[in-house]
Amino acid sequence: MPGSKDIHWVSKMPQYEPEKIQRVVLKISGEFLAGDRGYGYDHDVLERLAEELIDIKKLGISVGIVIGGGNLYRGAKGEAEGLDRVTGDNVGMLATIQNSLVLNDYIRRMNFQAEVFSALQCDKVCHFYIPREAEVSLRKGRIVLLAAGTGNPFFTTDTAAVLRAVELKADLVLKGTKVDGVFSSDPVKNKKAVFYPEITFDEVLAKRLNVMDMTAFSLARDNNIPIKVFNITKKGNIRAAILKRDEGTFIY
User: Fold this and answer.
1) Residue 2 in contact with residue 214, Cβ under 8 Å?
2) How far is it, in rounded angstroms, from Cα 3 to Cα 86?
3) Dist. CA 236–CA 48, nearest whole Å
4) What value, to the nearest 5°, has the Cα angle with vertex 83 and ends 77 and 85?
5) C-beta atoms surrounding 102 within 10 Å
6) What's residue 224's pLDDT?
7) How far does the chain reach from its first CA to its final CA, in angstroms?
8) FRET pair for 133, CA 20 to 30 Å: which of 24, 72, 182, 192?
9) Gap between the Cα atoms of 252 and 16, Å rounded
10) Which helix (H) or strand (E) holds 142?
11) Pseudo-torsion of CA 7, 27, 17, 142, nearest 10°?
């Protein structure tokens, strides 16, 4: 782990109690679905992700998932190339629906129930997102994929993940990344970056750490929704991030 020998511990932290985690919203990037390809889909990644999500559900934990669309399209890239920002963001939201439908199919192939809810109306392929209906689906034991971001341009899928966590009364937002958690700087570029196993919302702001966009982060802080940032590229780490206090960074 980069910088692991120089670890910062936060004092007076409330005990992280995984046994009390009953519902999570997992946020992953679209790029993760592409694996090493960088674009499109990697069959092995999707299969492993579906297996790990089913494993979490079998623990009795309700699971909602928000996936980005970067493996297919990025609104910011379109804007840089001259595309209208609203148009670009709408295309990006459609990409998240495609990703959710694909992952949904992988989960169903493994004989487990899953449903896609979209913030944009696409009645032929998925349900329109209404909090109470998504709640019913979760209570029925289904894995719920929450697509199309917030349904509005200018908002990221990070914000969508936190918003859905608030609406669905989740106990924790899980943010899967390519690094082991939150560091003082980019651990890929700086091998001396300090790893934070635990940190408060206020400390993240004071240190100007790049965890989520500010809208998402502020929404989590204001609604007291803790966040666990962890390395999703490691096999079995979704389960570990929930059940192990020392896996990833706990933000509270």
Assistant:
1) no
2) 40
3) 9
4) 80
5) 17
6) 96
7) 22
8) 72
9) 10
10) none
11) -160
pLDDT tens digits, 18-43 = 999 999 999 999 999 999 988 999 99
Residues 6+ away with beta carbon under 8 Å from 240:
230, 234, 247
pLDDT of residue 154: 95
Contacts for 113 with CB less than 8 Å, ≥ 6 apart: 140, 141, 142, 143
Q: Which residue has the tokens 């390519």?
A: 178
CA 135 to chain centre: 18
Domains located in the chain, CATH noted: 18-251 (3.40.1160.10)
Query: What band does 234 get if pLDDT is binned at 50, 70 and 90?
Result: very high
**Which residues, in sequence order, are bridge partners of residue 229?**
175, 249
Q: Under a CB-based contact definition with an 8 Å cutoff, are residues 69 and 27 in contact? A: no
Instruction: Give every CB contact of residue 157 below 8 A, 6+ residues apart in sequence.
Output: 27, 66, 67, 68, 69, 96, 149
Helix, strand or coil, per DSSP, at residue 147:
strand
pLDDT digits 0-9 by tens, 119-161? 999 999 999 999 999 999 999 999 999 999 999 999 999 999 9
Looking at residue 16, its pLDDT comes to 83
